[in-house]
Amino acid sequence: MVGLPARGKSYLSNKLMRYLRWLEYSVKVFNVGQLRRALARAKLAKSGVKEDQSAAFFDPSNPAAYKLRTQMAEECLEQLITWLKRGGNVGIHDATNSSRSRREALKRRVEKEPGMKLVFLESMSTDPAVIAANIAVKVSSGDPDYAGMSPEDAKADFLKRIQHYEQSYEALDSHGDESHLSFCKVIDVGRSVTVNNIQGYLESRIAFYLMNLHITPRNIFFSRHGESQYNVEGKIGGDSDLSPRGWTYAKALPELVQEAVGDAPLTVWTSTLRRTGQTASGLPYPKLAWKSLDELDAGVCDSMTYDEIERYYPEDYASRDEDKFNYRYRGGESYRDVVVRLEPVIMELERQENILIIGHQAILRCLYAYFHGLSQEDLPYIKIPLHTVIQLTPKAYGCDEKRFPLPIEAVDTHRPKPQPKTAATAPAATSGGSGPDTPSLEDAMTSAPPSQMRPQGVA
Ligand SMILES: O=P(O)(O)OC[C@H]1O[C@@](CO)(OP(=O)(O)O)[C@@H](O)[C@@H]1O
């Protein structure tokens, strides 16, 4: 990262980390400020520098502090490089890196590592209101640099720190000495992005993502469709209509949404399946139906109950319980596949303002995990109950959340994560993985209902 303090570097670092992690890269942010606080006490005691956080520590004319800050940025980079060598994909060096000499030093160090690439992401703000808001977040968010200080003193000190950095700040320049570097310069997040010497798939993805971000305050609402006929019957997938209780929810939804949104503009996104369209039918807002929002495709298991799947496809049922994120239904999809298919939806969501998505259980789990940065392991078990609107409000470091459950009864379609079997409860292992009482895959196929008779091995 490159940029003066209070220009949203940590915001962009964390946002990028969440996005890339969601796309299954292994990503970590290495924040020099945190390292400074962790290492400072001991080193400072030796170096004779009294304070590690007050503005004086950031004064470029204070040689001892300058040396220490340089050492800490280098130490942080070393930690990042070690982590990459152990298998990480993207390490984010979250520091000001605001002078050419510092960036040159980073470049020289990274060039020594075969196969590592360096891309600078500079965050600039020209809008005084955005800078003021960033300063307010820093001094009011319990930042450890200002623990025990009054907000006024903290703000005054932080402003002084910024002034110190401004004395030596050199922005990335695509026409000057740094024109050979790979970089993206983001000006007033959402207003302008300059891309220089960006090459390769991952770099381009990052640049494209940054181009789509904005920081205009907004809300994102999620709701599953009203209870469907299949939900009542315990069947998965399909394209059934709403149940009578589902219709009651669809009729109650406009009032709830109107209360939450007020007069602000809103766009409603649905899938192309009947149950989401029916749920959205009374909402007086522009609507868009996305094929990408259709529910996870359960392949040969579509329209079965979980009990039927266990009976006819016992090995698949067990595999799904073992690794639900990666399990792909025969002829259908896995959660992993759904994440890939939802990537354009995420990109468009980032570009938009207030959006209400009327979606499905698996789809909303994937989207929800992106906004909250949840792991792949937890993602398929997130609770997204029927007849509940979830409001997410993006904030500097994550999202605030409110849930609005409507008092309209519905079945519970959430299946908890199975507990790992202990030695005492686990069945004895048999060849093929099926117990004596469990039908084999062959049995399952020959006794499967006709609608499920499909060729094997199509996964
Ligand atoms: O991944 P699991 O937990 O099976 O949840 C996904 C399932 O949720 C369901 C309901 O059981 O979603 P939906 O109500 O949107 O139709 C199924 O259609 C879908 O297969």
Task: Give a structural overview.
- Residues 1-217 form the 6-phosphofructo-2-kinase domain.
- GO terms for molecular function: 6-phosphofructo-2-kinase activity; ATP binding; fructose-2,6-bisphosphate 2-phosphatase activity.
- Residues 420-431 have a biased composition (Low complexity).
- This protein folds into two domains: 9-212, Rossmann fold (3-Layer(aba) Sandwich), CATH 3.40.50; 220-452, Rossmann fold, CATH 3.40.50.1240.
- The protein is built from 15 helices and eleven strands.
- It is elongated and about 75 Å long.
- The longest helix is centred in the N-terminal third of the chain and has 23 residues, at 63-85.
- It has 459 residues and is of the alpha/beta class.
- The protein has helices at 9-22, 32-47, 63-85, 100-111, 128-140, 151-168, 201-212, 229-233, 244-261, 274-280, 306-312, 314-322, 335-351, 361-372, 441-447, and strands at residues 27-31, 90-94, 120-124, 183-187, 192-196, 220-224, 267-270, 287-289, 355-359, 388-395, 398-405.
What's the structural blueprint in terms of helices and strands?
Blueprint: H1 9-22, E1 27-31, H2 32-47, H3 63-85, E2 90-94, H4 100-111, E3 120-124, H5 128-140, H6 151-168, E4 183-187, E5 192-196, H7 201-212, E6 220-224, H8 229-233, H9 244-261, E7 267-270, H10 274-280, E8 287-289, H11 306-312, H12 314-322, H13 335-351, E9 355-359, H14 361-372, E10 388-395, E11 398-405, H15 441-447
Parallel strand pairs: 1-2, 3-4, 6-9, 7-8, 7-9
Antiparallel strand pairs: 4-5, 6-10, 10-11
Helix pairs in contact: 2-3, 5-6, 11-12, 13-14
Residues 224, 228, 231, 236-237, 295-296, 298, 360-362, 380, 413, 415 line the site of 2,6-di-O-phosphono-beta-D-fructofuranose.
